[in-house]
Amino acid sequence: MTGHGSLRLVVRRVIPASRERLFAAWTTPSHLKEWWGPRGVRCTHAEVDVRVGGRYRIDNELPDGRVLVIAGEFVAVDAPTALVYTWRVAPSAADAVDELVTVEFLAHGTDTEVVITHERVVDERKRGEHEDGWKGCLDRLGAFVVVTART
């Protein structure tokens, strides 16, 4: 194990949608419930108060039926270009350190590059889990915006 909360992860994906659409998909509870989570994970509940100091909560039902809750507080909100928020998974140890997530929405013509920087990760195992999770989330976010563009 490395130093407590010392690892960092960056995941990038170009998605064929405007940053306004992607920002809304990331911050609207009904949208989050449609796409959040890697394959096999279902978002059963989402609350989002998108303002500095506002809180969020996302309930994830895993394939085995367990529910993991991801919750935290917004540190920075710059619609539609960036979000910064703390990240804690419950249940977790009482002495767990809040991780930090930055999501950037970078316009590239009609597409948007979504850049997720996940910091303060405690060890390589967790970092790998986060990488798999974020890649799965971005797969589903891309599919969500393509499908909803047709409706």
- Secondary-structure content class: alpha+beta
pLDDT under 50 segments (min length 5)? none
Order of helices and strands: EHHEEEEEEH
Q: What's the end-to-end separation, in Å?
A: 47 Å
CATH topology: Alpha-D-Glucose-1,6-Bisphosphate, Chain A, domain 4
Strand content: 35-45%
Shape verdict: globular
Most strands sheet: 7 strands, antiparallel
Determine and state the CATH class. Alpha Beta
**Going across the major beta sheet, what is the strand order?**
1-7-6-5-4-3-2
What attributes does this structure have?
alpha+beta, 7-stranded antiparallel β-sheet
What does this structure look like?
This protein has 151 residues and is of the alpha+beta class. The protein has one domain (7-150): Alpha-D-Glucose-1,6-Bisphosphate, Chain A, domain 4. The chain contains three helices and seven strands, in the order βααββββββα. The chain has helices at residues 19-27, 29-35, 124-150; strands at 7-15, 42-48, 55-61, 67-78, 82-90, 99-108, 111-121. It has a seven-stranded antiparallel sheet. The protein starts with 6 loop residues before the first strand and ends with a helix. The mean pLDDT is 93.
Question: Layout of SSEs?
Answer:
Layout (H helix, E strand, L loop, with lengths): L6 E9 L3 H9 L1 H7 L6 E7 L6 E7 L5 E12 L3 E9 L8 E10 L2 E11 L2 H27 L1
Antiparallel strand pairs: 1-7, 2-3, 3-4, 4-5, 5-6, 6-7
